[in-house]
Design a protein that fits this description.
Blueprint (H helix, E strand, L loop, with lengths): L6 E6 L2 E6 L10 H15 L6 E6 L4 E3 L4 H10 L3 H17 L5 E5 L2 E3 L1 H4 L6 E4 L4 E3 L13 H6 L5 H8 L5 H6 L5 E2 L5 H8 L4 H8 L12 H7 L5 H10 L3 H11 L3 H14 L5 H15 L3 H12 L17 H5 L21
Helix pairs in contact: 1-3, 2-15, 3-14, 8-9, 10-11, 11-12, 13-14
């Protein structure tokens, strides 16, 4: 393959192949990788030799663990603009993938988190395996689900998406399918053959030859308490319902929430609820860009990354430290306009932009 080392790019038969090539970093996305992927997709969009695009990750551990949060930590501490610049191009890429005119096949093998969801779950063909672990774990670092995550999770059945967004828990293949984050299951051992078939056969034919029945998920058995508890209007009420339910798994969920950033939890709930009424993905990405940029001024983002990735003490000191101290105006600040020239303005079908 040719191209930059961190993204391998090649045309193989009928397909344009993209391989994220940072296996030691779980293929975490850098700004240059985002730009390289967008460049390739733009070139292939009108290339008659490329009938479909296939994206995968190098190594055995996963497609992509998300954005490079160490770089975000350094940028925030330095007061730079690199994170906002990265998100602007990343969210544009998410929109490009969602509207891509050719089949976009994402092999969601292994770890697929954060930005990894953004470059896969907006595709037209999303394949999970028995090794898949799909998550939007942002609340654990004082951040809020982005890359269209609030769009995707806001459309999951019932309140499953709210549960996943607030707790940040990872789900396997069966639950990814249930929540609308994936379409097909294929055993990991068949992925090589699937890629080879995609290069020589139409996408439906290749999928039919290799797709299989997914292992049973876990979330369906918990729908009753999840839908009841997470339908509450506030995070405080959600936690109270979880603790009152008498269901051990619900109590565990409440304990999980207690470890997350209180501010991030409240902003995430608001972002999800707003996303459900915003319409197309592009409008949600615009909202997420406001939220993400606002998070740069929050002490929780730097502290969350420090605790989870830099010092790895897993003991973040959130500010404010509890839900009751997070005011409505604190949440509203995340959704405030950024000002002239700073907004993310995306075109969507039927949009006058």
């Amino acid at each position: 393959m040719t191209g930059e080392a961190d993204v391998l790019v090649q045309v193989e038969g009928r397909t344009g192949r993209l391989v994220l090539n940072r296996p030691k970093a779980l293929n975490a996305l850098s700004h240059s990788m985002v730009l390289r992927i967008a460049q390739a997709l733009t070139a292939w969009r009108d290339d008659p030799a490329v009938e479909a695009v296939v994206i995968s990750g190098a190594g055995e551990r996963g497609l992509c663990a998300g954005g490079d949060i160490r770089a975000i930590h350094a940028d925030v501490r330095a007061g730079g603009t690199a994170s906002a610049d990265f998100w602007r191009d990343e969210y544009r890429l998410n929109a490009l993938i969602a509207r891509y005119p050719k089949p976009y096949v994402a092999l969601m093998d292994g770890i697929v988190m954060g930005g990894g969801v953004g470059i896969s779950a907006h595709g037209t063909v999303r394949v999970v395996t028995e090794r898949s672990r799909v998550a939007m774990p942002e609340t654990g670092i004082g951040f809020v689900p982005d890359v269209g995550g609030t769009y995707l999770l806001g459309r999951a059945p019932g309140e499953l998406g709210t549960h996943l967004a607030l707790t940040g828990v990872a789900v396997g293949a069966g639950d990814a399918l249930l929540c609308g984050l994936a379409d097909h299951f294929a055993p990991a051992e068949r992925l090589g053959a699937l890629v080879a078939d995609l290069a020589r056969r139409p996408v439906p034919d290749a999928l039919a030859a290799h797709a299989d029945r997914a292992p049973a998920g876990e979330l369906a058995a918990h729908r009753e308490w999840i839908d009841d508890c997470y339908a509450a209007d506030t995070v405080e009420d959600i936690v109270a319902r979880l603790l009152r339910s008498g269901v051990p798994a619900a109590k565990e969920a409440a304990q999980t929430l207690a470890a997350k950033s209180p501010t991030a939890l409240k902003v995430t709930l608001a972002a999800l609820r707003r996303a459900r009424s915003l319409g197309p993905l592009e409008r949600v990405l615009e909202q997420e860009y406001r939220v993400s940029c606002a998070a740069l001024a929050s002490p929780d983002l730097v502290e969350g990354i420090r605790a989870q990735v830099i010092d790895k003490d897993r003991s973040p000191r959130w500010s404010p430290a509890d839900l009751a101290q997070v005011r409505d105006e604190d949440v509203a600040r995340y959704f405030a306009p950024l000002g002239p020239g700073r907004e993310l303005a995306l075109s969507a079908p039927g949009s006058p932009r």
